[in-house]
Amino acid sequence: MGRFFQSVKNQMNTYINLSMSSGNFYIFLGCIVLLFALIRLAGIGIPSLQWTDWKEIDYISISKNYLNNGFRFWEPTISWPAEPPRITAMEFPLVPFLSAVLYKFFGFNVITVRLITLLSFLLIIWFTGVFARYLTGPHIALLAAFFAGWIPLHSRFGNMQFSDPLLFASSLMSLYFFYRYTLENKTSLALWAFGLLSLALLLKPTELYIALPMVWIWFRKHLFNIRKWFQLAAFFSLAFVLPFIWYIYVWHLTKTSIDVFGVFGGHDKFQTFTMLSRKEWYAAMFHSIWSLMGGAPGFFIFIAGTFYALFRFRQHHLILVWLIAVGCFFVIVAEGNYDTPYRQLAITSVGAILMALGLWVILAITVLLFPVLQSVAFRKIVIPVFALTLLLTDYKQIFHRPDSPVHPVEWEVASHIKKIADVNDRLITAGTYTIHKGGNDLSPVVYYYAGKQGWTLQKGDWNQEKLQELMSKGGKIFAATYMLREPEMEKFALDLAKQYEVVYYANDRQSIVIDLRKPLTP
Asked: How far apart are CA 381 and CA 84, in angstroms?
């Protein structure tokens, strides 16, 4: 068995050391980027903007308001509240701001809404390839670039406008330029590395996990040279300056305006011990990674690549430390990862590199078992064919996703609201938020689907006094969703149904629409 493993090792060393001119490498890499650009453009309109996901709805609202309110960057503004304040605390709003600039010059359409996400994922493909070239050689790197394009296609958030695609691209590029800085010692590379790290932290502070592989790279190069560690600390300190300033301002907004994103409040993002004690968390993480890898074939080659990297730790230590860092992010931000599956896209680049290693390992084993296949032509044919086969086996998932409401319950409720609402009618809603231990995130979905503004009743507001107050301000229609999960809210809604005309009551008793303009006669 030891001899066999040594043979696999030698065969893989041959693959890693295969030469390819820089020109050919960048031509092939460019072709991979172009392939996925075309795939993404073909499906960029799914889901339609009219019934998109809650995450994109908030960003569309903010980007539209930038356009309409004079591009005041420091005032990210949502639309659904019936009365001020509407400026919201949030992470650095670069993505909605740039989208608003695109609207100004090219109009509001699905391309301008989602262009930054498209470009971010293409950057991830490109920099996964160029980084993997340093770590695994050009041939494996090209396959890694392919998988970096393939993995995000399995996420329903893969098209949508929000900060995380740019966030993941920024942290990847930061790590890449930092790695090159440790090799070439050029100040310009350090500025790129820590400038991009600063941007990543601005977009979301939890991206700090990428510092783990950066520190590891530094340790491998400088060990315990104290002077060098002070230099690294200075770089990190500079990278924290802008995020520190921005989040002080965000804290100010939480006190003077609203915080619908829950940057400092909202749900408990760090329920690490609570989540790690529940088997549902592990099942959700496994299912999410399994799905991103495309199911059994992709997950199998990912595992194969991971075991090979462990077997060759001295050669692939950085890849494994990077994977550990992503795992730490999953664990520390445990509730956030359980609640929002787009966070698992953090595994895209390192997962793609491990999948590429895994597929080449499988090729090496195949060649060793069947020496007749040992030829340059075989390996040049089988790897592209396998990659294209993965695309074809996922044809329905990638190319034929149905265009339907992301939130069908809210879409049905909104359709009944639109049937009865006048232009100036406002909504009073309950249940239009996501419940968490420690708080909630207000959701814009019903308001966006119905094209209305309104007020969201939360626990403590389910009473006649609050209802009458909001009715006096123009609240004409009451809508509730997911009532069974909160019995007190359900009781309040059903009591209202005895007083006013019920427009819609779902068969599953989860949703109700009540016309507050039409009281029932006793």
From this structure: 62
